[in-house]
Amino acid sequence: MVDKTILIVDDERPIRDMLRVALEMAEYKVLEAANAQDAHRLIVDSRPDLILLDWMLPGISGMELARRLKNQEVTSEIPIVMLTAKGEEDNKIQGLETGADDYITKPFSPRELVARLKAVLRRSEGVSSDPITVEGLCLDPSSHRVTISEVPLQMGPTEYRLLEFFLTHQERVYSRNQLLDYVWGGNVYVEERTVDVHIRRLRKALKLEGHDRLVQTVRGAGYRFSNKIAVAADQL
Length: 236
Prior knowledge:
By secondary structure, this protein is an alpha/beta fold. Helices cover 39% and strands 19% of the residues. The chain is built from 8 helices and 11 strands. The chain has helices at residues 13-25, 36-46, 62-71, 89-98, 110-124, 157-168, 176-184, 193-205, and strands spanning 5-9, 29-33, 50-54, 80-84, 102-105, 132-134, 137-140, 145-148, 151-152, 215-218, 222-225. The chain has a 5-stranded parallel β-sheet, sandwiched between helices. Strand 7 (137-140) and strand 8 form a beta hairpin. Helix 6 (157-168) crosses helix 7 and helix 6 (157-168) crosses helix 8. The chain starts with a strand and ends in an 11-residue tail after the last strand.
């Protein structure tokens, strides 16, 4: 029995009905909201494990709701999957930069939807271990917190997993495909450019005291995490 709750936020009842049936058949608990205001109340009261969020909503858009949720400490780590008819790459990148963990374009099959939600939920589960510290940057898996010189940092679940992977695999260069496999999972339907989006967001989160320099770009190869000075030709 899957003990996970998914909140569907979509203003079209037929779509909510279709999504609810598919998710309940996969044994998920389902909550529903037709607009951002109702969704926010449900999120605060019920703390769903994942939010399936339509891009186009009346009043406050799904994009704006995602932005607000990722900026609030109590909701920032809830995974968000955007659901929309917008298939252009720029819109996908915009959604990911807002804080979405994945992006599903209509039309889609219920099997694909469930598979991708399972992948996002699996990636969002933390693994306990001892704190890891590099030059004042500390990631504590047991509390799921990241600090620099004891100052708490705000970052989404994907950036957290990416940082955790880098901290446990320092000095080695990883290609985008390798990062997709190790951090996102081999069964996830995401593009290589998704890695670049989350690398930029991770660097932004690590700006304090210049720790963003630790996430280095290696031209033509990928990314590495290192506290050594990078060769100038490596950097974008």
